[in-house]
Amino acid sequence: GFTDLLSLAVGWAPPPLAARSRLYIIGGHEAKPHSRPYMVSVQSKGVHVCGGALLNSRWVLTAAHCIPQGMTVVVGLHRLREHRGTQSFSIRNACPHPDYNEDTLENDLLLLQLEGKVKSNKKHRPIALMRREPALGTACSLAGWGGRWGRLVDALQELEVTVLDARMCNNSRFWDGGLAPTMICFQGRGRGEAPTKGDSGGPLVCGRPPRVAGVMSFSGPDPTDRLKPPVATSAVKAPGGVGPRGGHRSAHPKAWRRDWGT
């Protein structure tokens, strides 16, 4: 059952599609240090694997395909090699979305319960979830530590993106029916700008004040291919939701229906 799955979750190896779907940023720029205090680094044995978003003092949202062995979360990073002022946590519980499909990457969401509480300050601050799906043309952004050819960059990079029409993304010239209703497709605002292999799990952030609309999930083999735009999993449309008004209460673990208060 799902309870047994949760007990084994921290020891999971990433599913086969993870190599295809880990994303990083092409054409972005270095973020202002600690301007995204909700960003976390999900690490395996001290090495960055995926990004994530701090939802409150004990919980982080990332992608379900990001579960590594020996997992820790580091809060307050700007440069991966500079740990001064950061906080590191082991994982008490790793809770993949109950409807996560590792073959299609539908509902590619993972909640991590930290072993301990994050001390909030200007470098460590949670971010809220959006209440509605971002509309066509919405300006959003993302960030990560990935680099070209699977290498990591030291400083956090960021990229401005625009939400695309879901029906267009799913037509025969684009993803050809491969996108589920719980997925958001988008593109970099500049030509040749895109996330690609290296750093998924980070939040797609939209609106003012900034809120999490989704979690970075996958892209095509050529990340700059305009016919295979990158895809995030919606944190709004996921069955059961991530916030306090999620449905299917009898089937979902407490983590998927809790009130995200600090």
From TrEMBL:
Q: Which Gene3D superfamilies match?
A: Trypsin-like serine proteases (2.40.10.10)
Q: Which InterPro entries match?
A: Peptidase_S1_PA (IPR009003), Peptidase_S1_PA_chymotrypsin (IPR043504), Peptidase_S1A (IPR001314), Trypsin_dom (IPR001254), TRYPSIN_HIS (IPR018114), TRYPSIN_SER (IPR033116)
Domain of life where this protein originates: Eukaryota
Q: Please list the GO biological process terms of this entry.
A: apoptotic process; proteolysis
Which GO molecular function terms does the record list? serine-type endopeptidase activity
Q: Which key words tag this protein in UniProt?
A: Disulfide bond, Hydrolase, Protease, Serine protease
**According to the UniProt entry, where is the signal peptide?**
none
Give the matching SMART domains: Tryp_SPc
**Boundaries of each Peptidase S1 domain copy?**
25-262
Bias regions of kind Basic residues — which residues?
246-255
Q: Which Pfam families match?
A: Trypsin (PF00089)
- UniProt-annotated stretches for the region Disordered: 219-262
Q: What is the name of this protein?
A: Granzyme M
Organism expressing this protein natively = Coturnix japonica (Japanese quail)
What gene name does this entry carry? GZMM
